[in-house]
Write a structure and sequence with these properties.
Pfam families: DUF3841. The chain is 31% helix and 25% strand. The protein is of the alpha+beta class.
């Protein structure tokens, strides 16, 4: 068991209270915006990885994103300006959570080959397989040793958060990026 934090739209939290759990509900996701819709394949790949690695089903939903540090909502960028949100502090079982290195997640989002070789992926399979390194903490930490100007930051995903797993709720209104 570990403590995590997630920021959510207040309406997503309202729906969670009605459902008895919070999940990656597409009604509150980022893919309503056309610019963000181009990232859908990466999120689908991540959902498949989550299901394979945890043996837990998402049932067509997106995973819920988590951090191991509380988000600084004062810096903004979580919701549209003026929208209400919540930061949930949750305690989750280790087997339900998948860890990924945040910087390498950008490789999947942008369809970049995750390699420190100076070449392109030779196939779609090699490209997608390269992204799996983001789940390998040892590999990620070894890169920091080899390239000291880099660092690591980990995010976590889970299929759902049951109401009894919520330890604290902090409300906020999105102020915009500061």
């Amino acid at each position: 068991m570990a403590i995590y934090y997630t920021n959510q739209h207040a309406d997503a939290w309202g729906a969670a209270k009605r459902n008895g759990f919070l999940f990656g509900d597409p009604n509150y996701g980022m893919f309503k915006d056309e610019d963000d819709a181009s990232h859908r394949p990466a999120y689908d790949w991540l959902a498949d990885q989550y299901e394979q690695r945890t043996k837990r089903l998402l049932n067509g939903n997106d995973p819920v994103w988590l951090s191991d540090t509380p988000p600084n909502v004062a810096r903004g960028g979580f919701l549209e300006v003026g929208e209400p949100g919540v930061v949930l502090t949750v305690e989750l079982p280790d087997e339900a959570v998948l860890e990924l290195e945040a910087g390498y997640w950008v490789f999947a989002l942008n369809r970049w080959f995750l390699s420190f070789e100076n070449r392109e992926a030779e196939s779609e399979e090699e490209l997608r397989t390269s992204w799996e390194k983001m789940f390998d903490r040892e590999w990620c930490e070894a890169i920091v040793e080899e390239y000291p100007e880099t660092n690591t930051k980990y995010y976590y995903v889970v299929d759902r958060i049951q109401l009894h797993q919520v330890l604290d709720i902090q409300s906020f209104i999105e102020q915009g990026v500061s």
